[in-house]
């Protein structure tokens, strides 16, 4: 799984450089920034610092001195879903945006500069799942590698869509992934690999996909105790969408914050 610590990020600090296609950032746009900070601060122990002004009201979530996520404010006239968005690294966000379009996807935001930290775009795949593209600034940064993800860090991203095979080709063409199907008669599931390591999953669920949700990415955040984290979510005003259960990644629960943003809690096997 990916280690988000030290990842490239739109925060104005010296960012790390990543192999194109690497999941490198997650962000959330909400209506109530103060209440959202309070929820995630209590759940994950995040602290918050201002982010690039170009992105509007925006804060960086910080854990153990390192940026782990970004949270911004939706303009009042924008009626967009409240959802966590994963970003994938690029050496040339403008070129990647063109590739997205040529492969049947769309670009809804950008490409645009995020202060002096880098350049970004937000797009969607041919089925409508939203994702970001992030090009870190050219100056060198420091990447932390080989450090186990700790409580409150993004650790995995999974795409839930109608059918895995077709949309997987899109991500292979855009980001250079190698797809490895999960061999099962009951599952339409693919793992995306980059440089020989798994970086994301694609789960085709057909008609079981919620109509009010559509194809979407889910970010998994590491927790030390999934059951305890579920209780915290409930106490803090969030919702439990799928109770904690044991799965292939570890013990997992799917939850939503008070504004409805869905995410997963992941307790890795010890």
From TrEMBL:
InterPro entries: Anthracycline_SecMetBiosynth, Glyas_Bleomycin-R_OHBP_Dase, Glyoxalase_6, VOC_core. Pfam families: Glyoxalase_6 (PF18029). Residues 22-136, 153-268 form the VOC domain. Residues 1-20 are annotated as: Disordered. Signal peptide: none annotated. This is VOC domain-containing protein. It comes from Streptomyces griseoloalbus.
């Amino acid at each position: 799984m990916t280690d988000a610590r030290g990842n490239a990020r739109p925060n104005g600090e010296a960012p790390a450089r990543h192999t194109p296609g690497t999941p490198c950032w997650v962000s959330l746009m909400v209506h109530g920034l103060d209440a959202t900070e309070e929820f995630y601060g209590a759940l994950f122990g995040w602290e918050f610092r201002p982010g690039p002004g170009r992105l509007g009201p925006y804060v960086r979530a910080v854990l153990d001195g390192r940026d782990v996520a970004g949270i911004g404010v939706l303009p009042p006239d924008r009626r967009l879903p409240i959802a966590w968005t994963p970003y994938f690294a690029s050496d040339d966000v403008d070129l990647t945006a063109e590739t997205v379009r040529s492969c049947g996807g769309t670009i809804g935001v950008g490409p645009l500069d995020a202060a002096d930290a880098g350049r970004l775009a937000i797009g969607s795949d041919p089925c409508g799942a939203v994702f970001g593209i992030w090009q870190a600034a050219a100056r060198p940064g420091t990447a932390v590698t080989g450090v186990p993800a700790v409580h409150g860090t993004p650790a995995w991203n999974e795409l839930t869509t109608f059918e895995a095979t077709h949309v997987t080709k899109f991500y292979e063409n855009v980001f250079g992934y190698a797809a490895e199907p999960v061999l099962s008669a009951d599952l339409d599931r693919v793992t995306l690999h980059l440089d020989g390591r798994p970086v994301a999953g694609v789960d085709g669920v057909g008609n079981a996909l919620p109509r009010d949700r559509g194809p979407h990415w889910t970010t998994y955040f590491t927790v030390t105790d999934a059951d305890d984290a579920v209780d915290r979510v409930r106490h803090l005003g969030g919702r439990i969408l799928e109770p904690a259960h044991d799965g292939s990644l570890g013990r997992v629960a799917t939850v939503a914050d008070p504004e409805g943003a869905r995410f997963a809690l992941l307790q890795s096997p010890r």
